[in-house]
């Protein structure tokens, strides 16, 4: 029952739905009927729907039929009228066709004209669009063309600015065009090209700077020299302005140059062409020689491109390499001053450029980098100068080198570089300069001493006299009163040596200039160097002359006279040094000159050489002695060799009358050296004669030989008594021969009893006779007595004498043994 009700209810819902669909089909436009029909097929009752649709169609057909039956007559009338209209319509169609044909024929040209007009209008529209697009693209192309022109003319910094405008302003407006894409793709390449070209310009600049560093340095040093000269002039005049340009003034040139060498000025050469200036013209500024625009442009370009750090590292690396090359001195630099000058010019040129870069760029180089380079340069420069200056043997070259180093230091000091170490090194070179001066003056002194005639200087006029006195401080009232011609006591080497000592002092003073030393330090330096000159160089030169083999006694005497006067002149040398250094001798720690000691030593050496030479001459004469020790003849005159020897001694001691009085004892005995030489000669002669008598080769001698020897000794004693040199007291000189005299008297007088009896007593007559000497001589006579057959008829007397000799010999041996015990 329930099921039946449910089926009935579902059937009613389906029927209602189908009815709705049919109404929609009837009322809906045919084009929109699809969704309605789809809803039918989506359901499961489309069969029943078809039935309902057929039923609805039949109902409409019946209504149409009813309606037609009702309006049939009207329909027939309408058909009839329609048929009439069709005929008229055919006529109208024909007329329209004919009209259309005529119209087409007549409008054919118009159509052609319209087509042409259409094409023109299209072209006009296209042209207008093209012009608009070209107007939009034209600035891009102009900017690109400008970019290429700027790159072609190497105006890289403006090119980079143009590239930025092109990339950020113009290209975005026409980015959809293919050529713009090509430009956009080409922009990184253009940037790299600008970087490469600007870097190439920088490399050319660095290479040019390296080649022209010496020119830049030379100009900077000329400026420093001119400034120093100007300062010296200002110091001599009232101060009007500042002593030296300030650092700010120095860089005024640079600031003006920055404006002219900004990236827009586009000057690419690293070194400007500047003709060599004459010495009397103003020297151009070192910065005027350099165009730094390549550095500025490259720095700006790399900064804009975000690669500033890369640029800074590259620049510093390359400049460090160049610094090492500049600081490498040539191997032959020490040969000429030009070698040192070129070396200094390159270093100064390098640091002038770096100093300018430091003050005209922001951060390309900094003070720490400059200080690091300068420390390296300073150490290498000082090492190179120490090495190469040690090869210099010419004091003039060392002095010129010192002046060049001072100028080098002053130039760099203007630019703010510390140069104290250079001045410290100059103090080391000062010692070397002193050594080279000493070597040079050694040759000068040697030439003076070798060329001197060792004779007093003769003068024949007042003019000549004043000339000598002007060269050497000499005052002698007695000599001044003497008439012309007259002679100075010293030879020519005295004023020459004195003036050369002054020249040496001047040479030392020259080196101390511009070293920023105090007067006391300069004075101390000069005095120490002069002392070395006196105590070492001059002293050695004098000693060499004195020790020369062929030097004569006259020359030695003159050397003693000369050194005496030079010794007196030492106080004038002290005054001379005081005058040029303005340091009083009484100042604490002032070094004293050792000239007095030097000349005293030389004089003593000359005196010793006189004594030695005299003794050698005596030995030469003694070698001529030819005694016949076995002779029995009694001679009546001295030996010829001894007569010649005495004559030589007399003539020699006559020379000594020219010797001066002692300096320390101006009132003392004149000729003390002559007295000493005479005493030394007599003692040496006596000793040599004693040795000649006792030498081992003389195994036998006779009384006749002793008599001849006694005559020779008497000749010597006669020479001693004659007073060859004044000043000896009584028989002082004869005492040199006392040993020989007593020995000969003992043997000739055969006074053995007195000798043996008084031996050892202070009043002994033969006090100077040594028993050993007496025994030796007695043994020579004993052998002779035994072998002598000349007095055969007196054999008894000979036998008695022989016994006496044996007895005396025995007693002498007893004295000798008792003396030793």
Automatic annotation (TrEMBL):
<comment type="function">
    <text>Component of the exocyst complex involved in the docking of exocytic vesicles with fusion sites on the plasma membrane.</text>
</comment>
<comment type="similarity">
    <text>Belongs to the SEC15 family.</text>
</comment>
<keyword id="KW-0268">Exocytosis</keyword>
<keyword id="KW-0175">Coiled coil</keyword>
<dbReference type="InterPro" id="IPR046361">
    <property type="entry name" value="EXOC6/Sec15_C"/>
</dbReference>
<protein>
    <recommendedName>
        <fullName>Exocyst complex component</fullName>
    </recommendedName>
</protein>
<feature type="domain" description="Exocyst complex subunit EXOC6/Sec15 C-terminal">
    <location>
        <begin position="421"/>
        <end position="780"/>
    </location>
</feature>
<dbReference type="InterPro" id="IPR042045">
    <property type="entry name" value="EXOC6/Sec15_C_dom1"/>
</dbReference>
<dbReference type="Pfam" id="PF20651">
    <property type="entry name" value="EXOC6_Sec15_N"/>
</dbReference>
<dbReference type="GO" id="GO:0005886">
    <property type="term" value="C:plasma membrane"/>
</dbReference>
<dbReference type="Pfam" id="PF04091">
    <property type="entry name" value="Sec15_C"/>
</dbReference>
<dbReference type="GO" id="GO:0000145">
    <property type="term" value="C:exocyst"/>
</dbReference>
<feature type="coiled-coil region">
    <location>
        <begin position="82"/>
        <end position="109"/>
    </location>
</feature>
<dbReference type="GO" id="GO:0006893">
    <property type="term" value="P:Golgi to plasma membrane transport"/>
</dbReference>
<dbReference type="InterPro" id="IPR048359">
    <property type="entry name" value="EXOC6_Sec15_N"/>
</dbReference>
<dbReference type="InterPro" id="IPR042044">
    <property type="entry name" value="EXOC6PINT-1/Sec15/Tip20_C_dom2"/>
</dbReference>
<feature type="region of interest" description="Disordered">
    <location>
        <begin position="258"/>
        <end position="280"/>
    </location>
</feature>
<keyword id="KW-0813">Transport</keyword>
<feature type="domain" description="Exocyst complex component EXOC6/Sec15 N-terminal">
    <location>
        <begin position="52"/>
        <end position="221"/>
    </location>
</feature>
<dbReference type="GO" id="GO:0006886">
    <property type="term" value="P:intracellular protein transport"/>
</dbReference>
<dbReference type="GO" id="GO:0090522">
    <property type="term" value="P:vesicle tethering involved in exocytosis"/>
</dbReference>
<dbReference type="InterPro" id="IPR007225">
    <property type="entry name" value="EXOC6/Sec15"/>
</dbReference>
């Amino acid at each position: 029952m329930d099921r039946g009700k449910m089926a009935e209810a579902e059937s009613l819902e389906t029927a209602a739905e189908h009815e709705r669909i049919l109404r929609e089909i009837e009322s809906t436009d045919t084009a929109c009927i699809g969704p309605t029909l789809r809803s039918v097929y989506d359901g499961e009752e489309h069969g029943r729907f078809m039935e309902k649709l057929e039923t609805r169609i039949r109902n409409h057909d019946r209504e149409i039929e009813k309606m037609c039956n009702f309006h049939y007559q009207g329909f027939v009338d309408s058909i009839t009228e329609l048929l009439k209209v069709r005929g008229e319509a055919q006529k109208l169609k024909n007329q329209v066709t004919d009209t259309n044909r005529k119209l087409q024929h007549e409008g054919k040209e118009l159509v052609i004209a319209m087509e042409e007009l259409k094409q023109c209008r299209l072209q006009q529209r296209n042209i207008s669009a093209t012009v608009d697009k070209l107007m939009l693209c034209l600035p891009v192309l102009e900017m690109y063309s400008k970019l290429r022109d700027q790159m072609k003319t190497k105006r890289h910094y403006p090119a980079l600015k143009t590239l930025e405008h092109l990339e950020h302003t113009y290209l975005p407006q026409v980015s959809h065009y293919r050529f713009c894409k090509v430009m956009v793709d080409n922009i990184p390449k253009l940037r790299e090209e600008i970087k490469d070209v600007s870097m190439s310009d920088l490399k050319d600049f660095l290479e040019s700077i390296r080649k022209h560093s010496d020119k830049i340095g030379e100009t900077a040093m000329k400026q420093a020299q001119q400034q120093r000269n100007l300062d010296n002039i200002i110091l001599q005049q009232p101060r009007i302005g500042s002593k030296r340009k300030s650092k700010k003034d120095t860089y005024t040139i640079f600031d003006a140059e920055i404006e002219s060498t900004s990236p827009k000025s586009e000057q690419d050469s690293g070194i400007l062409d500047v003709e060599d200036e004459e010495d009397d013209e103003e020297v151009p500024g070192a910065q005027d020689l350099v165009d730094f625009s390549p550095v500025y442009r490259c720095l700006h370009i790399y900064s804009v491109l975000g690669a500033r750090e890369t640029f800074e590292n590259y620049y510093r690396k390359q400049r460090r390499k160049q610094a090492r090359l500049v600081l490498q001195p040539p191997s032959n630099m020490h040969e000429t001053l030009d070698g040192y000058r070129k070396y200094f010019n390159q270093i100064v040129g390098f640091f002038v450029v770096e100093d300018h870069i430091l003050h005209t760029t922001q951060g390309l180089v900094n003070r720490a980098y400059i200080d690091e380079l300068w420390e390296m340069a300073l150490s290498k420069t000082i090492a190179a100068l120490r090495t190469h200056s040690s090869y210099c043997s010419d004091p003039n070259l060392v002095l010129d080198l010192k002046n060049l180093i001072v100028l080098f230091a002053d130039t760099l000091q203007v630019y703010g570089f510390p140069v104290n170490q250079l001045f410290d090194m100059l103090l080391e070179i000062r010692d070397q300069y002193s050594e080279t001066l000493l070597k040079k003056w050694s040759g000068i002194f040697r030439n003076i001493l070798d060329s001197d005639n060792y004779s007093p200087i003769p003068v024949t006029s007042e003019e000549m006299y004043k000339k000598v006195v002007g060269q050497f401080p000499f005052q002698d009232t007695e000599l001044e009163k003497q008439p012309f011609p007259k002679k100075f006591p010293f030879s020519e080497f005295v004023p020459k040596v004195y003036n050369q000592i002054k020249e040496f002092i001047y040479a030392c003073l020259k080196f101390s200039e511009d070293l920023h030393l105090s007067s006391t330090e300069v004075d101390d330096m000069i005095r120490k160097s002069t002392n070395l000159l006196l105590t070492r160089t001059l002293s050695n030169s004098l000693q060499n002359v004195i020790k020369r083999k062929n030097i004569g006694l006259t020359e030695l005497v003159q050397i003693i006279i000369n050194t005496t006067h030079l010794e007196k002149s030492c106080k004038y040398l002290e005054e001379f040094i005081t005058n040029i250094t303005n340091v009083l001798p009484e100042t604490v720690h002032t070094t004293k000159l050792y000239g007095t000691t030097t000349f005293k030593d030389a004089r003593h050496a000359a005196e010793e050489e006189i004594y030695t030479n005299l003794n050698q001459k005596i030995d030469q004469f003694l070698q001529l002695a030819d005694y016949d020790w076995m002779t029995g003849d009694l001679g009546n005159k001295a030996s010829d060799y001894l007569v010649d020897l005495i004559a030589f001694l007399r003539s020699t001691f006559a020379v000594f009358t020219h010797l001066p009085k002692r300096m320390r004892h101006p009132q003392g005995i004149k000729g003390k050296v002559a007295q000493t030489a005479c005493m030394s000669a007599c003692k040496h002669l006596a000793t040599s004669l004693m040795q000649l008598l006792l030498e081992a080769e003389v195994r036998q001698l006779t009384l006749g030989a002793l008599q001849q020897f006694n005559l020779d000794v008497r000749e010597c004693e006669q020479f001693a008594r004659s007073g060859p040199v004044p000043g000896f007291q009584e028989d002082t000189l004869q005492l040199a021969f006392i040993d020989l005299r007593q020995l000969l008297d003992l043997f000739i007088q055969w006074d053995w009893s007195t000798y043996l009896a008084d031996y050892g007593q202070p009043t002994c007559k033969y006090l100077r006779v040594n028993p050993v000497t007496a025994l030796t001589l007695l043994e020579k006579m004993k052998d002779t007595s035994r072998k002598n057959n000349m007095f055969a008829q007196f054999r008894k007397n000979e036998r008695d004498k022989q016994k006496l000799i044996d007895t005396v010999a025995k007693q002498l041996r007893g004295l000798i043994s008792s003396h030793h015990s």
